[in-house]
Amino acid sequence: MTERWNRDQVLALAPDASSQKAAQGVSSPGKWSGAGATADALWGECRGSGSKPYLACVDLSEPAYRCSCPSRKFPCKHALGLLLLWSAGGVPDAAEPADWAAEWLDRRRDRAARTAVRASAPAGGDDAGDGEAVTGGEAGAGRAGGTAVAAGPG
Predict the structure, then answer these.
(1) How do residues 30-46 score in pLDDT, each as one tens digit?
(2) Which of 30, 36, 67, 115 has the fewest Cβ atoms within 10 Å of its own Cβ atom?
(3) Residue 41 bridge partners (DSSP)
(4) Whole-angstrom Cα distance, residue 55 to residue 43?
(5) Which residues pair with residue 37 across a beta bridge?
(6) Residues 106, 101: Cα–Cα separation, whole Å
(7) CB within 8 A of 12, min separation 6: which ones?
(8) Strands 147-149 and 54-59
């Protein structure tokens, strides 16, 4: 199980001071429903101003973040708020992620496995005809299909 991060470690992930402040505003338990945590992931639905809650998920092994909000900041205030709630012990443990979170986590793991296989394949080998173009992975912070990957807190 991933060791629970402290508040300062979570806030250090924020892209700027305004994101830190906004995250604290959405870190209260009343803003979240359907939240849960496994050994390597967090997820939850954050109530916002719209009719549908934002779906936020964090892969703690990278960390990596996904949220249905339109923010261009990574991690967004919802992912940070969920991490703050978790760091304070406010996210219950769960046996399995919610379906929508599990789908994202499974896609990430599949992509990582394919990347590892490509990296271990001999250059110019006979098995290079798998029909997939190699264009790079999620090595640094940035947007990749709604996903941001950044250095961990430690």
Answers:
(1) 999 999 999 999 999 99
(2) 30
(3) 59
(4) 7
(5) 42, 93
(6) 9
(7) 153
(8) unpaired
